[in-house]
Amino acid sequence: MKKGLLVLSASMLALSLAACSSGGEKPAESAKPGDASKSPEASKAPKQMTLKIGLPGSYDVTKKEIIDGFIAKNPNIKVELVEAPWGDFVKKIQTEIAGGTAPDIWFQENAVILGYGKRGVAEDLSGYIKKDLKQDEYISGLFAAQSSDGKVYGVPHGINPIALAYNKKMFTDAGVPLPTKDWTYQDMLDAAKKLSKDTNGDGKLDQYGFGASSSITVGWYPWTRSKGGQVLDETKSKAMFTDPKSLDGIKTWANLVKDGISPDADFYTAAGGDWKAFASGKVAMFFMQYSNSALINKDFPNLDYDTIEIPKGYDGKRLVPMVTNSWLIFSKAKADAKEAAWEFMKYYLSEEAQTVLAKSGAALPVNKKAMTQLDTNASPKNKKAYSDGIAEAGVTLDENPSWNEWRLAAQPIYSDIYAGKLTPEEGVKQLQEKVQKVLDDNK
Amino acid sequence: MQKQNRWGYILTLPFTIHFIVFFAFPFIFSFYLTFTKWDMFNAPDWIGMGNWTKLLTDKPFWYAIRNAALFAAVFVPLQTIFALILAFFLNQAIRAKSFYRVIYFLPVVTPWLAGGTMWRWMMNKTYGLANYMLSLFDIPPVDWLDSKYWWLPITSVALVNVWKGVGSSMIILLAGIQSVSKELYEAAALDGATRWTLFWKIVFPIVSPMIFLVLILSTISSFQAFDVFLVMFSSPDIVSDQKLTPNILIYKDAFLTSKMGYASAMSWALFVLIISVTLVQKWFEKRWVHYE
Cα dihedral sign for B95, B96, B101, B107? Predict the structure, then answer.
């Protein structure tokens, strides 16, 4: 009797443990070990090191050739890759940082890296850069991750600026002259008005001249500044939404839907996103991030489009916002791994790897020589719209260590303004209050 | 004797460890965290009552509480009443009774992602089925999930939550109703009771403990609601203040902006709130719940 009871309880225990573990977490998506090179048996000078590289967006965003090239050149470094789609990677990285199990090196938006630097998550690279890199081989974007106290917390994975993309066929069909470098925002809106049509006579517009966005990089940031306004001031510690010039820019942007020039958010949801609306011919122009070209060329290879620099603002000044993704070294990685990680960064910034990046069209390189190797055969042919754009007028999205928090606080308010639920006047008051609070909390 | 005790301890050890690691420790640690500022990377930074004083004047938190209160006020009565009516009718001799029971229970086992996405599209302002129906009667489209009136999105989600949960409450209440013995019905019928009196004087008192249970459970779950809002509203990091609910706000602060200390304080405040509401409900218990 007693023995039977023992057996019964033991098997129940086993069952419940099994049930527990299967219902538990799936660490699966991340650890798909990539290429690991075998180290030579007779290792002489170079030290044996292991390196764990995190790749959000997998090989869509980071070229496989670069990784393979690094592995081939460094047989003494055993490379383990952790790949995941961007959204999943970003969600997991927070807990991995907290638990100390993050990869030795990975990349994220530059502003997030600045935040990491402040928290102590990212290693300071200024020493390495001084020692091993010739700074005049690179554009100033190399120091995108430099904090106000001179420490450099990351190196660029690639620069992703914006430009004005236009559908050549829609322009020629409507008899509207193509955009030029000298266009202003007003020229753009005038052309857009002529390109917005109701093609099937149902009283609702089906074709829009300009696809405005309610997101930060291609939407509210450039528009808030289009009339000389600012989002944050030069010290990046004061919010500037209630400045009359900022309010003016926001008002123009908010009226785009009312004036029949831009579609509303629901139209984009039904079309599958802003670049899809453009690529499927529903929208004649839009502010396009450089990285969109890879997506458009893959899904819509026959689209006849090109790009031109972002138009000059109403005050005559051009501003070309850019988003940089940056590699960082995890401060809690082992000393060996940090060295190996710097070797990888050095390789990534070398002309060889940067040329691969340039030719791929995924992002712009920071190496000056590689910048001359942009692929002008694939659309958009006028890639100089991007490289000249940032050379002339490149700005970041007012990055500071609390960027992620304040821009997330601003986003729903801007979305409500765009949707017409908040007047711009009421909206800028809320923006000012919320964003200033975040900036003050994080001084 | 000794040997028996030893086996007892050994065999309950997995459960004890599980309890300590996943319940006792987080309970105590999160209370400690409410007095700290912690970004989950560096060590927690003691700040005393800082989080608690911030809580009293933090507008997003109080919007979230207001929304949760409305959500509970709409969801709990509606779900309980519907469940009771359904259970009562599905206890009668109707044809295809089991078929109906299955149909009403199906939403309960539908994953939120599937059901929620579908409802979200149906309530879409421009392309949704709900507004299409309204347009047939010449009523202008209503923005169910994103209206400028804060109470409309919350009420819409509460209605969807009723659809989702009515099946499980119905099953609980059905079990209660089925325990009413046949003799009581017959005796009452003999004494000339109408259907209405039958329900109120016979069925209701006997089922009242179950109803009370359903009320308590659904109130607690409505204050804790998370996945329904995650699916029906946009991503938690960009939800507007007016549409916040407590758990979405806690999730946002804890994991998206790394403010673990403040998020813990909000969790504890929510806990205190839920306990208080439950105690209030229990106080009313003796007045209307009938125990044998």
Answer: negative
The per-residue DSSP string of A397-443 comes to S---TTHHHHHHHHHHHHHHHHTTSS-HHHHHHHHHHHHHHHHHHT-
- Residue A42, domain member (yes or no): no
Domain at B58-288: CATH code: 1.10.3720.10
> Residue written as tokens 């040997």?
B3
Disruptive mutation site among A15, A17, A94, A332 for chain B (greatest number of B CBs within 10 Å): A94
**Which string of DSSP letters, residue by residue, matches B216-238?**
HHHHHHHHH--HHHHHHSS-GGG
Q: Which two tokens stand for residue A2?
A: 């007693």
Measured distance CA(B269)–CA(B64) in Å, rounded: 12
Q: How far is CA A216 from CA A62, A433, B55, B131, B238, in A?
A: 23, 18, 29, 30, 12
Are A151 and A166 in a shared domain?
no
- Give the closest residue to B277 by CA, choosing from B40, B94, B120, B72: B72
Strands A394-395 and A320-329: parallel
Q: What is the pLDDT of residues A322-378, one digit of tens each?
A: 988 999 999 999 999 999 999 999 999 999 999 988 888 788 999 888 888 887 778
The CATH number assigned to the domain holding A179 equals 3.40.190.10
- One domain, residues A291 and A360: no
Domain definitions of chain B by residue range:
58-288
Q: Give me the DSSP letters along A194-248.
A: HH-B-TTSSSS--BEEE---SSIIIIIHHHHTTTS--SB-TTS-SB-TTSHHHHH
Q: Which two tokens stand for residue A281?
A: 């011919």
Q: Which of A15, A93, A119, A422 to mutate to test the interface with B (most CBs of B within 10 A)?
A: A119
Question: The tokens of B214 are what?
Answer: 């359903």
How many whole angstroms separate alpha carbon A119 and alpha carbon A52? 22
Q: What is the CA radius of gyration of chain A?
A: 25
Question: Chain A: nearest CA to B92, how far in angstroms?
Answer: 39
Considering the domain architecture, whether residues A155 and A165 belong to the same structural domain is answered as no
Residue A192 CA, chain-centre distance (Å), reads 27
Tell me if the bond preceding B140 is cis, omega within 30° of 0. no
How many structural domains does chain A have? 2
Domain range for A352 is 49-160+323-390
**Encoded tokens for B43:** 């060590």
Q: Are residues A222 and A143 in the same domain?
A: no
The pTM (predicted TM-score) of the whole model is 0.80
Inside any domain, residue A74: yes
Assess contact for A105 and A328: CB atoms under 8 A: yes
> Residues of A near B (CB-CB distance < 8 A)?
6, 9-10, 13, 16-17, 20, 94-95, 97-98, 119-121, 264, 266-267, 269-270, 404-405, 408, 411-413, 415-416, 419, 421-422
pLDDT of A115-172, one tens digit each?
Answer: 899 889 999 999 999 998 888 888 878 888 888 888 999 999 989 999 999 999 999 9
Nearest one of B210, B223, B198, B213 to B276, comparing CA atoms: B223
In a domain, A401, yes or no: yes
DSSP class of residue A394? E
Q: Which of A390, A407, A430 is the C-terminal boundary of a domain?
A: A390
